[in-house]
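Figure 2 data, in text form.
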Amino acid sequence: MVSKKLILDKPIWNGGERYVGIATYRLKDNNLRVSCRYRNKSGNPIWQGELLVTKRFAEKFSTKEFKTKGGKAFKVYLIPLDDLIEYNDYLNDKLQEQQQQRETTSTTYTPSQIADILATNPKIREICNMFKGCVIEPHVD
């Protein structure tokens, strides 16, 4: 699925809670990478970088109806900012875990790939034969 960028001017405040408001139509065909222009009194952004919002995640939250200046109604997901940050932390942790697994796991080759490698690099078989019990499949002589 395509991920589009969305820059918000500011979050929605509800008492002391901050919400990210995402129009439902924006998530119809896309995921969103959301950033915010708003700065606190110290001049710092209220969150760093972009936060990913998927339709599946947004649908867990309530919607509120708003109207355009022309009077046309549209719905907005009201996503608590803390929940969105927590969701993105979870996604980043999963991504790091997957990258670590890839780094520690060797690549598995198909038999045809092994045959091609052995055909173009005959020294590999010679090296393998120096180690007792070492087997390279498929066995091609």
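Caption note: The chain has a mean pLDDT of 86.
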